[in-house]
Specification:
The chain is an alpha/beta fold. The chain has one domain: Nucleoside phosphorylase domain (Rossmann fold). The protein contains six helices and twelve strands. Helix 1 packs parallel to helix 4 and helix 2 packs across helix 5.
């Protein structure tokens, strides 16, 4: 099957609802169904696949998202680089609601209940997560946000919690005292799984609130206020993402995400031409009937 997309976007329906000639396709995966159909369109001359990670009607809570299916299906469509925007809370007083943060690190504080790797054997694999977020794409995102006149923080650590509850004050103080800037419920394992399948990934966090009211002059977050701030800023993040797509490098392989999988085999055997990654073998077998137009 020919590649149907080269760039992927995890986000809500607002990212593709106003585009022309959008095609809806359903994708089967070995991990069960993704959150929804994929929506294919051309943006800035690039072939793009959009997926609403919570479903098009936002019915899937963060701890119930089938992250492996979502990411596998994106890769099966041919995607090599992913934009992963998200709503997030602030853990630092200088990171204000309405600001954008281009995160460069994550801290996993989920409960371990989410399936979070494709590498369950028999090829033992250890992939570095030192720089999960691609530095080239991060700089492009920073420049794009700045060109739109939006306050942007050029780096930040996002701590990812299980959800769906928000943090306690003690948890929020712990995270803030550690020096982390952003809190969210979806970046792990979503961003990490992209890297496991050789896709470069960049995050843009739209700050909707201060987390649990532990910072002086702030109040504890609630879902209504989060939705209000996100709605007020939805058009801005949509414009940034669509503009950013057109700025992506022509050669996405040059980002090196796929090449980074080369030295990751951890079972002591030498790499040989027969050392074919199982996910690529699976994708080859899956792709001829992977996507059907819905």
């Amino acid at each position: 099957m020919t590649e149907q997309a080269e760039i992927g976007v995890f986000g809500g329906s607002g990212f593709y609802s106003l585009l022309d000639d959008v095609r809806e396709v359903k994708v089967d995966t070995p991990y069960g169904p993704p959150s929804d159909s994929y929506f294919l369109a051309t943006v800035g001359g690039r072939k793009v696949a959009f997926l609403p990670r919570h479903g098009r009607r936002h019915t899937i809570p963060p701890h119930r998202i089938n992250y492996r299916a979502n990411v596998w299906a994106m890769r099966s469509l041919g995607v090599k680089a992913v934009i992963s925007p998200c709503a997030a809370g602030s853990l630092a007083l200088h990171v204000k609601p309405g600001d954008f943060v281009v995160c460069d690190q994550f801290v996993d504080r989920t409960s371990g209940q989410r399936p979070h790797t494709f590498y369950d054997g028999p090829i033992v694999t250890h992939l570095s997560s030192a720089e999960t977020y691609d530095p080239v794409l991060r700089q492009l995102a920073i420049d794009t946000i700045r060109d739109h006149g939006i306050e942007v923080h050029e780096q930040g650590t996002v701590v990812v919690i299980e959800g769906p509850r928000f943090s306690t004050k003690s948890e929020s103080k712990w995270f803030s005292d550690a020096g982390w800037e952003v809190i969210n419920m979806t970046q792990y394992p979503e961003a990490w799984l992209c890297r496991e399948l050789g896709m470069a990934v960049v995050n843009i966090a739209l700050i909707t609130d201060y987390d649990a009211g532990v910072l002086e002059g702030t109040e504890a977050v609630d879902a209504t206020s989060v939705l209000e701030v996100f709605a007020q800023n939805a058009e801005r993040i949509q414009k940034v993402v669509l503009d950013l797509i057109g700025r992506f490098p022509a050669d996405l392989d040059a980002l090196g995400a796929r090449a980074a999988l080369g030295p990751t085999r951890g079972d002591g055997h030498a790499i040989s031409p027969e050392d074919i990654r199982l996910f690529e073998t699976g994708l080859q077998g899956l792709m001829p009937g992977a996507a059907d137009e819905g």
